[in-house]
Write a structure and sequence with these properties.
The structure holds 2 protein chains of 2 kinds.
Chain A: E1 2-3, E2 5-8, H1 12-22, E3 28-31, E4 48-49, H2 59-75, E5 80-81, E6 85-91, H3 99-109, E7 113-116, E8 127-133, E9 136-138, H4 140-153, E10 157-160, E11 165-170, E12 175-179, E13 184-187, E14 189-192, H5 198-205, E15 212-224, E16 231-236, E17 241-245, E18 252-256, E19 261-265, H6 274-277, H7 301-311, E20 318-331, E21 343-348, E22 352-357, H8 367-371
Parallel strand pairs in A: 1-13, 2-3, 2-14, 3-10, 6-16, 14-22
Antiparallel strand pairs in A: 4-9, 5-9, 6-8, 7-8, 11-12, 12-13, 15-18, 15-19, 15-20, 16-17, 17-18, 21-22
Helix pairs in contact in A: 1-4
Chain B: H1 2-8, E1 19-25, H2 32-46, E2 50-56, H3 63-73, E3 79-84, H4 89-100, E4 105-109, H5 119-129, E5 134-139, H6 145-158, E6 169-173, H7 174-183, H8 190-195, E7 201-206, H9 218-235, H10 238-267, H11 274-307, E8 314-320
Parallel strand pairs in B: 1-2, 1-4, 2-3, 5-7
Antiparallel strand pairs in B: 3-8, 4-6, 5-6
Helix pairs in contact in B: 2-3, 6-9, 10-11
Chain lengths: 374, 322
């Protein structure tokens, strides 16, 4: 069967592309390994709608985030939680950026930032600057439901779940995807929107992989207590932590730079020790869902909570409710300036094969350029 | 019935407190593996949660690789490494390690000379639980004469409630760390600041095994001398007293010379006094320069304390696992 576009991966990027093309009347097929959409990266992350504060060492990333922030918040306001105080702070020791530098950076990037008294939130002497900022969080479940509802209306869009791709073959003017159940689908435009499995798909198609490293990350969900209820806190820029509302779930997410990544892999296809213990569920050729994996790591809650408690005043309490695990690919080039560019790579044209890799939710608009039909 | 219940309850008498162990590493490739394994065995046996922070002070041997190899054999994200950008000495490096530690209690291991029994580590910890914010482990016999001399001078002139001595390792409570940091921005000599922090301190003495003392290399020796001079100036009044005495002595000398000059003038023996006059001038200037030397030392330290904002310079922080 031949489709106008085939998209691999039913995360935000995949479904955004499906919706955009589907509404133009194109026949779109989405292939998803999981049994439901939004099961991995789109759901398992801090749920931060980035305004750019995170990147004081990369103006380019900061300015781009700020630019897309307003558009995303306007387009998807139904899933945005904005009624909380988002505090950024610079740690007194070990920070790559100090109070003055952060203020200057916000001015240069033209993003709002109002200085606060650090000791309102933090124990004495631990943070040299604290800032009230404008940054929101999105609810992946609501966002996912929105995309499902919109796609339901497009009879020309189909999503297949539980798909196992066996082969991707380039023919003269189409890509042929052969599934393990024997089905074969064809398209003149293939979009690889798989994030963690980026290189695995490229590998199947025989293309050069992205230069990425992999981190198995843990996001802790916790119940905010007392004053933390309507406050999000991010201590930066270095080996610190962040605790902020997790969409509209009423829970907070807790992450720490040094403890969120559990294990890393520097291979082009992700190789981890835990894969051997997963009983075939996860391999370097096909990543399983870390969250459902029998070999998922033990929670780093003791470490992350101790770090947060070291900084936060007693009245900003929190209690453990659960952990989410996922695989995160990081471009090797971005370590020094900590930038998070969206990488879109077109490896062939007519038939077209495009891969998209982005670590942020609101840069999804970068896709528009690729999806144009000219 | 009762028996099955007993079985289902997991016996877990491990300490609930989170502890951090900060270890100073400088060209220790030979002893670090054994040391890390020993510390890890003690901590994993006794604590539910802990971290080990190795501060690698720009070692030029294979210390880092050895730590990495050891980290691979330990389950969990226990070992962290701070890489100092260049050699900065034990005090600044340990400060970096303590700043990044997240434990409720922090062990400081300034060196890897394990001339004590492993049980001492927990003994020191339990002692701190009885109400001491800082507990030191100190060897009974100290071999180094220079160390003994330093502490003697230091304690004589410092008026500190806790006399200092040679110590091998210690445990600090989070409260002690916070207190010390709110007292002074830069900490050039931890021991002296700890002794003056006003919290309860205790020292446990142990019979040390003299055979395993480490020989200091040249660089370390130089650093130690510098630090000894700095801490004597900062935390004791020995320099102040010396300069005061010099000033008083020279005032007296000048006074005597004045009388002598007067007498010479009256008795008209001006020419014969020329030699002694010159001697006095030379001596006087010598004294003035001596005082200047002290003043200059004071000033240079003030500059260090006030203007050098960066406490220490680190290159990277790394968490290691499996």
């Amino acid at each position: 069967m031949t489709w106008d576009k085939i998209i691999i991966g039913a995360g935000l990027y995949g479904l955004y592309a499906a919706k955009a093309c589907g509404e133009r009347g194109e026949r779109v097929l989405v292939l998803e390994w999981e049994e439901a959409p939004f099961k991995r990266a789109t759901y398992i992350n801090q749920a931060r709608v980035h305004m750019g504060y995170h990147y004081p060492r990369s103006y380019a990333t900061a300015i781009k985030s700020a630019h897309y922030f307003n558009r995303f918040v306007k387009d998807y306001d139904f899933c945005i939680h904005s009624e909380f105080e988002q505090v950024y702070a610079t740690s007194d020791s070990f920070s790559w950026t100090n109070r003055e530098q952060f203020t200057q950076f916000c001015e240069a990037a033209e993003i709002p930032c109002e200085e606060l008294y650090p000791e309102k939130y933090f124990k004495k002497g631990l943070c040299d600057g604290a800032f009230a900022t404008r940054e929101y969080t999105y609810d992946a479940a609501i966002l996912g439901q929105f995309f499902m509802d919109s796609l339901e209306k497009c009879s020309n869009v189909e999503i297949k779940y539980g798909v196992r791709i066996k082969e991707i073959v380039k023919q003269s003017d189409v890509y042929e995807i052969i599934l393990e159940n024997g089905d074969t689908v064809q398209t003149g435009f293939l979009l690889n929107a798989t994030y963690g499995s980026m290189n695995q798909i490229l590998n199947l198609a025989g293309f050069e992989p992205f230069k990425i490293k992999y981190e198995l990350c843990e996001i802790i969900l916790c119940k905010p207590l007392n004053k933390l209820l309507n406050v999000g806190i991010t201590v930066m820029d270095g080996p610190f932590f962040s605790i902020m509302p997790f969409g509209k779930t009423g829970q907070h997410s807790l992450t720490a730079v040094t403890f969120t990544p559990h294990v890393s892999s520097f291979d082009s296809l992700p190789v981890f020790h835990c894969q051997q213990r997963s009983g075939g569920y996860c391999t370097p050729q096909q990543l399983g869902n870390c969250n459902d994996c029998p070999a998922k790591p033990e929670s780093a809650w003791p470490y992350m909570s101790s770090m947060a408690r070291k900084y936060l005043r007693e009245d900003y309490g929190f209690a453990y409710t659960g952990s989410l695990f996922s695989m995160k690919p990081i471009l090797k080039a971005s370590e020094v300036d900590d930038s998070r560019p969206t990488v879109i790579r077109k490896v062939s044209e007519k038939p077209t094969f495009v891969s998209v890799l982005s670590g942020k939710i609101n840069t999804v608009y970068d896709l528009d350029e690729v999806l144009k039909n000219d | 019935m009762i028996e099955t219940q007993m079985n289902s309850v997991e016996i877990n008498d491990k300490e609930k407190n989170f502890v951090s162990a900060v270890i100073y590493v400088y060209n220790d490739e030979e002893r670090i593996q054994e040391f890390l394994l020993k510390i890890n065995s003690v901590l994993s046996k006794n604590f539910e949660n802990y971290q080990i922070i190795c501060v690698n002070d720009a070692s030029d041997d294979k210390s880092f690789e050895v730590i990495r190899a050891v980290a691979k054999t330990i389950t969990g994200t226990v070992i962290n490494v701070i890489k100092m950008s260049f050699y900065q000495g034990v005090e600044l490096s340990m400060n970096a390690g303590i700043d990044i530690s997240i434990g409720d209690f922090v062990f400081e291991f300034d060196n890897m000379v394990m001339d004590y029994d492993l049980n001492l580590i927990m003994e020191v910890y339990y002692q701190s639980l009885t109400g001491f914010d800082i507990v030191n482990a100190a060897p009974k016999k100290c071999e180094r004469k220079t160390s003994r001399l330093f502490y003697k001078v230091f304690n004589r002139y410092s008026h500190s409630p806790h006399p200092l001595r040679t110590e091998n390792f210690r445990v600090l409570s989070r409260r002690a760390i916070n207190r010390v940091h709110s007292m002074s921005k830069t900490i050039p000599y931890r021991k002296a600041v700890y002794a003056n922090c006003g919290l309860k301190i205790d020292t446990i003495e142990y019979d040390n095994d003299l055979s395993c003392t480490k020989a200091y290399n040249k660089e370390t020796k130089h650093q130690r001398k510098e630090m000894a001079a700095d801490s004597l100036i900062l935390f004791t009044n020995v320099a102040y007293k010396m300069s005061l005495w010099a000033a008083v002595f020279m005032m007296a000398a000048t006074f005597v010379i004045g009388i002598y000059t007067l007498v010479s003038y009256v008795t008209d023996q001006v020419i014969s006094g020329y030699t002694s006059m010159m001697l006095v001038l030379v001596f006087g200037f010598f004294g003035v320069f001596a005082i200047f030397a002290v003043v200059i030392k004071y000033l240079s330290m003030l500059i260090d304390l006030v203007f050098s904002k960066q406490k220490y310079t680190i290159e990277s922080v790394e968490t290691m696992s499996e």
